[in-house]
Amino acid sequence: xxxxxxxxxxxxxxxxxxxxxxxxxxxxxxxxxxxxxxxxxxxxxxxxxxxxxxxxxxxxxxxxxxxxxxxxxxxxxxxxxxxxxxxxxxxxxxxxxxxxxxxxxxxxxxxxxxxxxxxxxxxxxxxxxxxxxxxxxxxxxxxxxxxxxxxxxxxxxxxxxxxxxxxxxxxxxxxxxxxxxxxxxxxxxxxxxxxxxxxxxxxxxxxxxxxxxxxxxxxxxxxxxxxxxxxxxxxxxxxxxxxxxxxxxxxxxxxxxxxxxxxxxxxxxxxxxxxxxxxxxxxxxxxxxxxxxxxxxxxxxxxxxxxxxxxxxxxxxxxxxxxxxxxxxxxxxxxxxxxxxxxxxxxxxxxxxxxxxxxxxxxxxxxxxxxxxxxxxxxxxxxxxxxxxxxxxxxxxxxxxxxxxxxxxxxxxxxxxxxxxxxxxxxxxxxxxxxxxxxxxxxxxxxxxxxxxxxxxxxxxxxxxxxxxxxxxxxxxxxxx
Length: 481
Known about the structure:
It comes from Streptomyces pseudovenezuelae. By secondary structure, the protein is of the alpha/beta class. The chain contains 16 helices and 21 strands. Helices cover about 30% and strands about 25% of the residues.
């Protein structure tokens, strides 16, 4: 039965993942009473089925790949990975899929938590169906923030239920490596899970509809990852798609896949890493004039543009601005500041790089692909610059020429690229591919968001011998070209 009177808060946040928690943290810190609504585990996708478990699987894989090429360590790391130990580490990093620690933090921050499925029920109204079968009504004085994230999108193949496919959730929480694993998809999830499970003992077949891996990155990034996956034993195929897929054998223990080129491949499990869809199908969007299942479009203040007034916000994956946990948390900080300012009756500062504008969603989205080698990128690629009509200089450098890279791994293979805006003479894009390059990314992000003049970068002296010396070499290459 629904509660007779609604509980009133200043702010209601639907979704207690990293994004929702950060919105609630910022609004609570601003003195606004805030409640989080969560239907699954507090901490969300990132903590239990995405960032944390996937990197726990990949860290020993990448560390072993580096160590195996360092003189004096080859023999020490020559044995296969201890799969049970890796999976146990993954379980610890996922808190054994228990959210007690997250709930404790929420309470310590002064935020209320309501367990159950939250749905919009009109302007500033939310209805929560609890696990006990009750309905809790909530009302917001100032704002409702939808932070429900995204889920794996499966292709429209017949017999999907009987196929029992993996999505990213099963790929990061599997209790054992399958002997044979087919992965469909050339993006980040596909290549990371291919890297992890191939190293953990699976025989991986990676199917890419495109002519290359990581199609949203610079081409050399996908080429280097392809090279290393094949060296590790993975079967990487391009320009193919799945026509049919079904289970055969006693108990359906084998997956049989027919490809667009007519070939048939078999495996024990199949992972579809073919994109994401918004978790907005059953959250009451129709009660505020929106279409269930749609992405929620916002302006730079994270306010939903299709709903009158300034009370509804969409933060994180559900708005499709930038599908990264760190970018969603950035949006959460902006949204929290916007909600607090409006609650105080203050005028928003929505200029470029202002406190109330998520400019980085457009100008400087950083991302790391934790493969061997690592891929780190921020800002524009050459393809994106051309599409946007931006006049840029493209500067490349072979990272393997650096003394710091050779110290890191004697057979270092990697490449760096920066894009310089010809008119403004600032960096607008950077891509690094190679072991250990993830730690180069923040410097590139600062250069772009700070709009540091290229001539000023000459005075940012990199330590020797480190991989960060690539910045100096890029500047020299540009000067001498």
